[in-house]
Design goal:
The complex is a heterodimer.
Chain A (H helix, E strand, L loop, with lengths): L8 E3 L5 E2 L8 H13 L3 E11 L2 E10 L4 E9 L2 E3 L8 H12 L2 E3 L41 E6 L11 E7 L2 E8 L7 H5 L4 H8 L7 H16 L5 H29 L3 H22 L8 E2 L2 E2 L5 H27 L1 H7 L7 H7 L3 H5 L7 H4 L20 H24 L17 E9 L2 E9 L5 E7 L1 H12 L8 H8 L3 H5 L1
Parallel strand pairs in A: 6-7
Antiparallel strand pairs in A: 1-5, 2-13, 3-4, 4-5, 8-9, 9-10, 11-12, 13-14, 14-15
Helix pairs in contact in A: 5-6, 6-7, 6-13, 6-15, 7-8, 8-13, 13-15
Chain B lengths: L1 H10 L21 E4 L6 E2 L11 E2 L4 E4 L6 E2 L6 E2 L12 H7 L3 E7 L5 H8 L12 E3 L8 E5 L7 H10 L5 E5 L1 H5 L21 E3 L6 H11 L19
The chains are: A alpha+beta, B alpha/beta.
Chain lengths: 507, 244
Amino acid sequence: MNAPVSPFARLGNRRTVRLDQIPESTIETFRAAIATAVDEGWRIVSLFGTPETATSVRLIAVVADDERGQLGAASTVVGERYPAIAGVCTQASVFEREIAEQCGVSPEGHPRLTPLRRHPPDHRPSNWTGSPAPFQRDAYPFSRLEGDEVHEVAVGPVHAGIIEPGHFRFQAHGEEVLSLEIMLGYQHRGVERLLEGRDAPRAMLVAESVAGDSVIAHANAYCGALEALARCHKSARAQSIRGIALEFERLANHVGDLGALAGDVAYQPAAAFFGRLRGDCLNMLMTLSGNRFGRGLIRPGGAAFDIPQAMALDLLARTRRLERELQPVAELFFGAASVQSRLEGVGVVTHDACIEHGFVGPVARASEVHRDVRHDHPFGVFRFAQIPVATAWGGDVYARALIRWIEIQRSLEFVREQLGALPAGDARVPCDALRPSELVVAMEEGWRGEVVHTVLTDERGHIRRHKVTDPSLRNWTALALAMPGNQISDFPLCNKSFNLSYAGHDL
Amino acid sequence: MFDLLRTRLAQGRQTVAFPSDAITFPERFRGRPIVERDGHAALDLGPCLFAPEDATDTPERRVAFTHDYRLSSRTRDGLVSNGGPLDIPTPLDQAMRKLLGRSLRLRSVVAGSCNGCEAELTAASNVVFDMARFGVQFVASPRHADGIVITGSVNANMRDALERTYAAVPDPRIVIAVGACAASGGPFRGSDQAGTGVPQSIPVDLWIAGCPPHPLTILDGLLGLLGRIERGDRHPVPAVAAEP
């Protein structure tokens, strides 16, 4: 058999590739190559469109082989319609809905082409003036079940608590959910367009506001992309500070999620204790950066704030205290039979579904999928200080809670280690102009999962396309899959166990 | 059971005795900025994102952050600092306060935000900040609410839902705008899909600045509105934030 020329250019996490080195193939070859790669165990990390000429769109796909820590990039150029990749590869489905909406192209034969964020196309070739998208923005075609006792329950966009807006449509039989469809886009702010603007200091602040609970993850990925394109080499110290901040962010959110789960099953003591301890994690980020969410800390070239020795010792002491205080609360929570019986077997996501749809983060790891950017595609401090991948089986609310607790302990261990031995170096070095006509993929394991910033520069070194992929983009489908067969009244609990971002999805 | 009680005892009392506690922040905390060496030192805190880059020191102008966390006003113009602290928000009038009694029930409407302000609103209800002890609680329906809290830039996709929620709250109703986005569009200003804050059609009773505001900033604003903070309760917190 003649080995065909690989349609994918090799690259790695934060390793750039020249645009002319990315193989361009016909849409048929491109489509088949993605389907084959996914069959062979690769998965889609990024798939997006950008105007090529006034009448065509360039599609770029980035795929990952997690076991070997490799990435591959391929591209093709399409007109107003092309055969949907989702027809042969489920993982492409959500990305193609995004492409259809942003670029105004029509992936023909897409199994369910519905609006993703409901906004006018903002990356459409200039000469296309017809219908802006292959679907109607204002009339979302909810699927509907018919039957004597089947009824429909609609929730949102304004929710019954302090929750971001989204719309959930259940088809139910009594209390039992038959299907759930999720319509999002209410938080759409046009983030990518702002990141593609010329005002770099401003774009940094936008990157910190993709998802307000994942400031560090998105800022790290954003800066990682720019630094790779500028050939900027951060100090080991800066990498360590970024790792510490990322793990503090994970700690705050995981601890907060355990508290929220306790609240949703009406186990008030754990809800109150975890809630307070979450605040302690945020306050450590505030000590570091001056802001409870770490805003202002991560900047191109490193970190805006250093960690002086006295602060490292203070944070170390507070981390130890946090560890001591978390332990008995976690024992209470996981030891209570009334809690366990409410978490087990609820909202199951199967291992196969995770592989098929390409779910990421704790959602995938709770279904025994070994997938963690820090381990599979390590960068910065994670090349030297490895954090073992935490997995659980069962894929239910209990497994997702357990993953958080395991990751809390490992993050604490990592933070203690780093604070105890901060490497020398400047916290921040200059980060200059970006190289022209290159592509870079910066992946980061945020607390919610894989955050990806893919950046393309034009021939003058300006940003031509900035693609943000929050883990929520992929994982919302997991919530929809987890609900059928469960009771409607379990939805809040289920939803909380995923705790996905609306802002990160809607951009 | 004994484990539960033991853990509860070990937790102790965690609630801050607001507003009477002397409040300290870590040295890098960025509160209200001050301007020096400038002809007109006015600074609008509405759109301020409190980024470390905002602190500048040139021969013409010096901007530095203080630890002053009190960033609320009854009017949008009131968020413009003339260099000194902002005035305490004027309390609601007597009739309105009588109507509310000791409780204020609010409905949250999130409209094109990043979820940062929402996280701090949630934190304001936890055991540390415990907003509920002042009678302030979030409720599940606009019909049960005395008013709404708006966060976010009021983007195109949420404008209709916001207006309908506002209309569903019985009169008289209070509107509280929280965060830089609600005051100005925040970091998303200039995007045609994001808005520039709460539209004129919805009259705002209280503006709280910040990106996002600290839970104590939120608490301070709400207590000011309810007339439960006196001038003497406000400790001076003039320290200047450490710069990078």
